[in-house]
Amino acid sequence: MQKVYTKIESIVGNVISVRAKGIKNEELAIVKTSSGDSYARVIKLHGELVSLQVFAGAAGISTGDHVRFLNQYMKVSYSEDLLGRVFSGSGEPIDKGPELTENMIDIGGPSVNPAKRIIPSKMIRTGIPMIDVFNTLVESQKLPIFSVSGEPYNQLLARIAMQAEVDLIILGGMGLKYDDYLYFKETLEKSGAMSHTIMFIHTASDPTVECMLVPDMALAVAEKFAIDGKRVLVLLTDMTNFADAMKEQAITMDQVPSNRGYPGDLYSSLASRYEKAVDFEGAGSVTILAVTTMPGDDITHPVPDNTGYITEGQYYLKGGRIEPFGSLSRLKQQVNKDTRDDHRALMDGMIKLYSSYKESLEKKSMGFQMTDWDEKLLKYGQLFEAKMMDLTVNIPLEEALDIGWEILADCFKPNETGLRSDLIMSRWPKKEA
What we know:
The chain is an alpha/beta fold. It contains 12 helices and 19 strands.
């Protein structure tokens, strides 16, 4: 039975308060005003005082307007009809397509029981050497992309969406500039990837509450498709905007702030989303890649700092490239042993030599005399950055490994690489006579 209340106690920002009994946290309501109806969601219960966040904002709402509680939680439609569609953070279509109202599922449910999960063991190929070769993405993994404003992290996500070898892409945008939303849409449509993509988009001009709903919408749909046997890759951008929306709500609710004004439950709120990553035995999987921008390039900022304790590594995007130092996929060893016999050794050897190149580069910048070995390292570093680190490079894993051997052969003698003799015998490029 739906309950209607005719007196609003207070209006603060986008939050209204009414006195009501028997209301549940996160329950939906409709606020009936002279200009139309607006959806709202319960965000705080204090005795009989119920606080609701109005999706469309509280402008135009008066204390005499009616609030009708719906006795249900936020839901999203789930079916194959979602493919190729674009929705707002509240689940409304924004692509001029029909509204979907059948087969509705709850959002924001609990994570999968750990006992029902299986150990990750399958690689997701992306065509990006700095991921496939050096920090392999594994099915059911949860990884952030740490970056700063101005870096091409959305372009990187779009490339991954186009090239990742998965069944389904779900893109969740939070606080996106409208140009970024159009970039994603146009890029995926031109590449043909839109046919197996679902988008939930919150732009910077949309209500704040919808920003907080985007990850839950995307992950609820992803989980259902995974149960049906699909390999799903969820791409989220930007989780710092999600955390800022939480912060704004907490300030409105007069909550006692924690580190830098963020709410005290920031860690658990982030973890409850990331822990949706799962590999179901006998079914599909959910893998999560989420951009986390670092204000001021500060890794100790509460959002990246808390994220690092939850996820299984991270990618660092800096200077338009995925940095080999600092980037880490903790699950890569689960799959590197099954790709090619030289994968792990070549990866380790090339990173070690690139570290030496950085030292030689520093010596050169300080005016020290360069040795023959330093010159070899400088040549190697330039080739490594151009053929491996450049994000425009788009090649399969096996070709990337072959190019790795070619770079080594162009710069060093076999005994200078530190690689095993048996691998050098079988993989070292044969020079043409």
